[in-house]
Amino acid sequence: MKKSIIIVLIFTGILSQAQNKKWTLKECVQYALENNISVKQSELDIELADIEKLTAKGNFIPSINAGGGVSENTGLSFNPVTNNAQTTTFLSASGNINIGYTLFDGLRNFRQLQRADISRLSSQYRLAKMKDDISLFVANGYLTVILNKANLEVLKSQNLVTKEQIERTQELVDAGSLPRGDLLEIKATDASEQQQIINAENNVQISLISLAQLLLIKDYENFDIEDEGYNIVDDGVASRDVSEIIASAKENRSEIKIAEQNVELAEMDLKIAKGANLPTLSAFFGYNTRFANTPSFVNQLDPDNPTITQQIGVVEGTGQSVIGTFPNTFPVEVAADPFIDQLYQNDGIGYGLQLNIPIFNGFNTKGNIQRSRVSLERSKFQLEQAELDLESTVYQAYVDAKGALKSYEAAQLAIESQELAYNYAKERYDVGLTNAFDFSQSKLRFDNAKIELNRAKYDYIFKLKVLELFFGIPATELKF
């Protein structure tokens, strides 16, 4: 009984610990990279590229094909062994092995292998970009939850102050020092703050659900994050010149590498299309054999009368007969040779070379070459556009990060001044030198300043990390 109770307590403790687990940003990012559907699809693209490469390698290996067949014929049929027409019923079988090898095909096989390598590299870059995008999505969702939690804490802490003020005001009203209208004003402020707290709690829950959905976690009720220890960590990227960040982005970002690989793929497709204009030389080797179970007839010598004499002609002029002696034979039916013996007796080998020279195929080859040229030009334009887009995006991220820093610094100054104003208003209210409405307005401005400071802080953190990502820092190595 005691053992059962201990086991139940241990299990309950483990379950409670699992339910109270708080996810860190690093854990969320890692979990998303391992379970996100888009990432898995990009990983499948790499597997398809590996299959494409395997197929391209197989073009350099001889093709080997074997075949065979068994049939039964009744009536007048051609014996596959003797090639004679026979009216009978017989079973026949045949088998063959053919080997083919392409000696030269305009280097198309070689180009296909090169294209498969480029295609796999392009798939890897697409996977890297997908992981960067997912990491940013997770980081943004994570910081949104932290921001909402921080705002909730601001509202709760300030509401505690409001409740203290209600008690203080109640005492002053009862003592006749303050009018009852001040108490009603403070209570109205408390009611408004309670409503804001409820909205803030909803925002926290909604942002947690959105993050859980992004991570494909279905246990929304028990999902929570670690909301402490996330501060502004600047590795010096924000202080670099924007041209340096743009140059690093063009060198390291997957968007440019993907566009570059698309240009190489288009160039390889053009070479493959041109290869169709060149002759194709291939070698072949074939082996075949056959079997039939039909009996055959052989001439056997008559032992009693081994020879016969027959006239074979007449001497011209004299009319004298010409006599010849021949073996005296008669036909005898014999059974078919054994299966294995016939395979050796009836086999044959064929080998040789085959040359195919393209002369005219309805402009198909020419059309393919022209389409490949157009695709190449389009991919070059896309690379140029990708560079322009990246430059514009990085510059915008740089401006956003600088603006977010200024907004954060301004929010810090604002919170200092609003705190001083709030403390001053509180002191005046406590001694009855100001009314409840003016005090609540000062407190409201102080609360909004705190919320704005939180917003500016996490907005700057996110935009700073976006800038670091463009600079070439891997998403898994971003510091918060």
Automatic annotation (TrEMBL):
This is TolC family protein. One of its GO terms (cellular component) is efflux pump complex. Its main location: membrane. Residues 249-276 form a coiled coil. The keyword Transmembrane applies. SUPFAM superfamilies: Outer membrane efflux proteins (OEP) (SSF56954). Transmembrane segments: none annotated. It is found in: Cell outer membrane. It comes from Winogradskyella flava. GO terms for molecular function: efflux transmembrane transporter activity; porin activity. Keywords: Cell outer membrane, Coiled coil, Membrane, Transmembrane, Transmembrane beta strand, Transport. The keyword Transport applies. Belongs to the outer membrane factor (OMF) (TC 1.B.17) family. Pfam families: OEP.
